[in-house]
């Protein structure tokens, strides 16, 4: 007889959500949650997507919490520039005219994690906090043992299932030798919370930049705004209470954050180099003690489950915060693991589900990486190429994931993305256009054309919707990609002739693209 049916290491989003799913499948399950922190801190991913929002509202039942304690998200916007001294209203803006059709949220993760954990405890889970796992032993059907230390001293408990929701600590993956750093994608991040950030929608903006103000029918302030550059991007995310989260993610093969007195100063200085950032953050101040950094962000696990154990959320892997996929992974993995662990505790044979999760997760991770992120930092600073990618990426996301999930959440969250023949075929198409855009970017850099169109235009569309109308935005993305291919042909012939292209000769070249990569000493 085991002390518990399930022990979950980590009580934040993934751990608490897994606990809730287990209790839903088998209410009598004895679940222990071990959380190392006495209080949750804020995390890097504060913006939800349509998938994670669906999971939180329709599966976890968090609609009231999200509506009353978090901010409604108003889509995604990208901002591009040619040079630091460019006029703000000359920068390229890519985003939607109107408010979002599906719920999305700008969340304070410390508040959200605490609320989900309280729901798990209310459902009957036991919580030990703060506590650390000193060691563990995996013995399959004979049970797992976990030794933990807390204010009450050291204690060893046994269980049938051990679930790792320890986040980047990836306790099981590292200890079992399954942890793998994704060296193909060498990205790093620095982020902080700021006060004194300007309101994107204020009357002052309407007086100074009327065309900018009148072009958008929704709130730019409550969107996830991204400043884009050669090898890097910055997120700007509002939080309830007035603080603003801002962070820089960069590919160290292309760009590195210049040196400075401290991380906060270096981040702020970098944001001010972008004309849009300078307008928004001119008077902003980083909040003391709330500056963070991670190097080598992406990683994965060769194996995410076995007889009596499983990893969920960031404990299984992480790729990139662009497009906010972190909580999507947490949603899919916590639902799948919660389902088969709950059914196992209830006495069902779940060997097939366990094998499916073990087999499909590495495929999902690899496809998600290669379709959306591999070498993307080589072209994200070019407005034409990145706007094509945005329309195709998000349009594909809606067709392949969002529409099916909203049609039947309980069934679709059991299926990790890119599963089956159709899913992989869809993924192969996405990988192809991502590779092509990276190739086109290299040609543009070679010919001095990269970023030369990062001025003087604005692309505003109607917004993504979970039905057939999304095809219009996919068509727009395909058209922009095909135009880039035609430009590439022209650049090829111009370079062979030894003369610059007409456009390259007539347009100012982006200083970010033309200059050699900035390296910190």
Features:
8-stranded mixed β-sheet; disordered C terminus; alpha/beta; FAD/NAD(P)-binding domain; 521 residues
What's this model, at a glance?
The chain has 521 residues and is α/β, with parallel strands linked by helices. It is built from 17 helices and 21 strands.
Describe the protein in words.
Residues 500-521 have low confidence and may be disordered. The chain has 17 helices and 21 strands. Helices cover 41% and strands 21% of the residues. Strands 1, 2, 7, 8, 9, 10, 18 and 19 form an eight-stranded mixed β-sheet that branches. Strands 16-12-15-14-13-4-5-21 form an eight-stranded mixed β-sheet, with helices on one face. A three-stranded antiparallel β-sheet has the order 11-17-20. It has helices at 13-25, 50-59, 63-69, 109-122, 171-176, 203-208, 210-214, 263-272, 275-281, 326-345, 351-372, 383-407, 409-412, 420-447, 471-496, 502-506, 511-514, and strands at 4-9, 31-34, 71-72, 76-80, 92-96, 105-106, 126-128, 131-137, 144-150, 153-164, 179-181, 187-195, 224-229, 232-238, 244-251, 285-294, 299-301, 305-306, 309-311, 317-318, 458-461. It is α/β, with parallel strands linked by helices and 521 residues long. The longest helix is centred in the C-terminal third of the chain and has 28 residues, at 420-447. α1 packs parallel to α10, α11 (351-372) runs parallel beside α14 and α14 (420-447) packs parallel to α15. A hairpin with a 2-residue loop joins β18 and β19. Among the domains are: 4-62 and 108-182 and 301-372, FAD/NAD(P)-binding domain (3-Layer(bba) Sandwich), CATH 3.50.50.60; 377-514, no CATH class.
């Amino acid at each position: 007889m085991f002390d518990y049916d399930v022990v979950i290491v980590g009580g934040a989003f993934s751990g608490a959500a897994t606990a809730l799913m287990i209790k839903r499948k088998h209410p009598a399950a004895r679940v222990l949650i071990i959380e190392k922190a006495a209080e949750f801190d804020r995390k890097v991913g504060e913006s939800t997507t349509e998938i994670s929002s669906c999971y939180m509202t329709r599966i976890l039942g968090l609609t009231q919490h999200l509506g009353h304690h978090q901010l409604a998200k108003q889509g995604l916007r990208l901002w591009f520039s040619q040079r630091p001294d460019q006029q703000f209203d000359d920068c390229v803006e890519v985003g939607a005219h109107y408010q979002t059709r599906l719920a999305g949220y700008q969340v304070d993760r410390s508040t959200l994690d605490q609320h989900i954990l309280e729901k798990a405890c209310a459902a009957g889970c036991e919580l030990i906090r703060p506590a650390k796992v000193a060691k563990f032993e995996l013995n399959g059907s004979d049970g797992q043992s976990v030794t933990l230390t807390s204010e009450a001293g050291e204690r060893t408990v046994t269980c049938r299932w051990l679930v790792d929701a320890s986040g980047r600590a990836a306790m099981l993956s590292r200890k079992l030798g399954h942890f793998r750093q994704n060296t193909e994608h060498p990205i790093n991040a620095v982020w902080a919370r700021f006060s004194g950030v300007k309101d994107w929608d204020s009357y002052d903006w309407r007086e100074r930049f009327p065309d900018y103000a009148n072009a958008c029918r929704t709130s730019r302030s409550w969107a996830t705004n991204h400043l884009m550059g050669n090898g890097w991007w910055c997120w700007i995310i509002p939080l309830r209470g007035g603080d603003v989260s801002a962070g820089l993610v960069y590919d160290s093969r292309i760009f590195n954050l210049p040196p400075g007195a401290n991380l906060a100063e270096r981040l702020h200085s970098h944001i001010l180099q972008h004309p849009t950032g300078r307008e928004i953050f001119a008077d902003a101040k980083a909040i003391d003690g709330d500056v963070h950094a991670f190097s080598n962000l992406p990683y994965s696990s060769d194996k995410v489950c076995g007889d009596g154990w499983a990893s969920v959320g960031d404990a299984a892997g992480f790729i990139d915060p662009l497009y906010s996929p972190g909580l999507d992974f947490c949603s899919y993995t916590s639902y799948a693991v919660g389902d088969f662990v709950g059914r196992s505790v209830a006495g069902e044979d779940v060997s097939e589900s366990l094998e499916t999760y073990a087999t499909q997760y590495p495929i999902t991770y690899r496809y998600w990486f290669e379709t959306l992120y591999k070498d993307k930092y080589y072209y994200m600073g070019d407005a034409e190429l990145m706007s094509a990618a945005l329309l195709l990426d998000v349009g594909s996301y809606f067709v392949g994931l969002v529409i099916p999930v909203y049609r039947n959440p309980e069934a679709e969250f059991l299926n990790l993305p890119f599963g089956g023949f159709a899913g992989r075929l869809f993924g192969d198409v996405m990988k192809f256009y991502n590779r092509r855009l990276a190739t086109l970017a290299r040609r543009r850099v070679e010919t001095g054309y990269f970023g030369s169109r990062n001025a003087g235009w604005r692309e505003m569309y109607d917004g993504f919707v979970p039905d057939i109308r999304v095809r219009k935005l996919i068509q727009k993305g395909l058209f922009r990609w095909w135009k880039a291919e035609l430009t590439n042909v022209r650049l090829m012939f111009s370079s062979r002739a030894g003369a610059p292209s007409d456009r390259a000769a007539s347009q100012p070249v982006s200083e970010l693209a033309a200059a050699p990569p900035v390296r910190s000493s």
